[in-house]
């Protein structure tokens, strides 16, 4: 919903940010005909990765090159085809793909497709990069976080230290919450997929809901509690399997 009163729930701080739909600015990018980008998280705000909401208004094609940056795409709606070499993968809602930095990919998207695009400078643990990885959220196993059955985590990527980050879906039953206020060197890029609640970031408490994005910088105190009558879910990225002094 557009705001004509000068108000917004979006907040940008030195170590965190809440980005909400009424403040989104859509821009175009070269080579992406019929697509608009909302860059919600970028290095300009202090992050070491970028996160964009991509929305299409026409069928077209684009390319993600092998530039030393890894990419992760999570489809919210519509259809997206990922072409790598002689193979292709057709993605629909809650399908995802990890593209290693050594691999160029062609994309073909249909009208009214929405997806999230993360990109970051990949830090390899050796001389080999991970392979292309494609999946659907429903196919990934779910486990209780620290034994709490009301809080489930799905790891979308394989639990292999060759990956330098994690992409997880967290599911909270109504009233569930994180066990404690976390603080760590890893940073996060988060999108609320369903439901909502209250997120604590540093000393601030934010009401959050479906469609909101959050950036959590290194060491920011963070906590979430789910509210309402339905489950809350969010997609979350964190740099992982690497030392804080790597890269």
Question: In terms of topology, how is this protein built?
Answer:
Blueprint: E1 11-12, E2 16-19, E3 35-41, E4 49-56, E5 60-64, E6 69-77, E7 80-84, E8 87-91, E9 95-99, E10 105-109, E11 114-121, E12 133-136, E13 142-145, E14 148-155, E15 165-172, E16 188-194, E17 196-201, E18 204-209, E19 213-216, E20 222-226, E21 232-239
Antiparallel strand pairs: 1-2, 2-19, 3-4, 4-11, 5-10, 6-9, 6-11, 7-8, 7-10, 9-12, 13-14, 14-15, 15-21, 16-19, 16-21, 17-18, 17-20
What does this structure look like?
This protein has 247 residues and is mostly beta strands. The chain folds into 2 domains: 24-136, Jelly Rolls; 138-239, Jelly Rolls. The chain is built from no helices and 21 strands. It has strands spanning 11-12, 16-19, 35-41, 49-56, 60-64, 69-77, 80-84, 87-91, 95-99, 105-109, 114-121, 133-136, 142-145, 148-155, 165-172, 188-194, 196-201, 204-209, 213-216, 222-226, 232-239. The strands form 4 sheets. An 8-stranded antiparallel β-sheet has the order 1-2-19-16-21-15-14-13, with no helix packed on it. A 6-stranded antiparallel β-sheet has the order 3-4-11-6-9-12, with no helix packed on it. Strand 7 (80-84) and strand 8 (87-91) form a beta hairpin. It starts with 10 loop residues before the first strand and ends in an 8-residue tail after the last strand. 34% of the residues are buried.
